[in-house]
Input
Amino acid sequence: MCEGYGPAVDESGVTSGTIAFPHPTMEHITILWPIEGDTNENAEATVRYRPVGEGTWREGPPLFRAVATTIQAGAWENRFAGSLFGLEPDTEYEVEVTVSDPDGGCAVEATTVRTRAVPAPPDPGNEISATPATVDGVLASAGPGDIVVLEPGTYGEIVVPSDGAEGNPLVLRGTPGAVVQGDVRLDGRSDVIVEGLSIYGKVKFNGGTRIAVVRNRIETTEDGIVTYTRAEDAYIADNVVLGATVWAESSLGVDGDNVGEGIAVTGPGHVIEHNRVAGFRDAISLLEDGAAEDQFSIDILRNDVSVAADDGVEADFCFHDCRVLENRLTNTFVAISSQPSLGGPMYVARNVIYNCSYVAFKLYRESVGDVLWHNTVVKNGDAFAVYSGVPVGRTLSRNNLFLGGPGGTYGGYDSGQGRVLYLPTAYGADLDYDGVGSETGTIENRIGDVVFATFDELVQLSTEQHAVLVDRNVFATPPAYPSDPMMELAPPDLQLAPEGPAVDAGVPLPGYAVGAGAAPDLGAYEVGTPPPTYGPRP
Output
């Protein structure tokens, strides 16, 4: 595949470093390939893959080019990075990656990578009953393959002192009538599953490895499920996590009258999926600044988020390959925060955002490398705006629906005037094939230094050469415009009208969810394809 490419003879050619595939998850494989040279940024990295034993290769998304940069929040080196999407759990894949540069330099790396299996209790396992009086002793003697079953009763704080083993976990399981009035602590543990508990407190797993927290109901006045030190490969799924924050103007923003992180993690390889999280300052979070450790290869998938008085998903300080996909976010101050992305790619795709009172995507603190695909946004004020006043770099946007309208000031924060796109400090932005509309009846936009007063100017003068003009009738059931975002609204059905302007109006994205029609539809939903299950699965 490198025929015709000579060696890199100067700094414009590419020299590749050591490729890595760190922390595969159940559905995704991360690819990281450091490079040197390529000062004119015209090298490319292509990917193909297939399950081992399958004859046909599949095309993966081209890797994202991150240019060595230093910002106030951090620095990164030249690299290609990206993800393979929609894979099967516990499956071996052949992966072949090619980096090539017309100025010289070419390399091919091929290997096999296995996706992770979904954590499961040992089968049959050794069930051991525990009561409030015996639980400490039972857990002290439990180990790999044991299933500690909490009998009905009221338990205080539970500390798990023992580990399971990879592929043979230790399980702490609840039964109806078993209630934990306190925290469940898993600090430093590995290969432990906590399932089916009713907890009035938090689950904390500082420094844990392969911890699974599944199908629990957690009610808390503080945090829900958290690790505040580096952990690896946690699986947090199908939980209901409820906090004490209410939806009110006084709650809004980082300094508002709000409390708690619903789910918060740091470290690589975590999967947070199918949870219902409501009533927190931040519903689902990564950590920030010096507390952020190795935040890459993280999946935040198909969660149902509401009443987040600061951020619905706070995916801040993503080193690369964080994947915020197919979530539903309703009644949030900020829907999805990337403050900042450290070079990218930071994938934000097929999320449904309704009634967001401030910004849909908080690309702040000089965020670089945010990739927005197939999101649906219906909000008060500006549909997609960045107000920070500092540079935001290399944003890539395709196949989204951005709908705004008349705004206002809520909790001291201005939601905007109903502009569709307002990114005054953007550089290197590549936005196209998006559907745009405003309840104001005008299409005002700004990308970098260029201002667009009409839809025609947007198409003629910006990268949005294939934009589509839409309004709320683009949906099969047009939702109410959230004119008062402080009303706590139910999530509407934002599936598309089958004959509307968003159908087949997108561009195919290699390796990611190609549409069933002539081309992909705009927004989070494809006509004829059922929406995902948001929150806990049956």
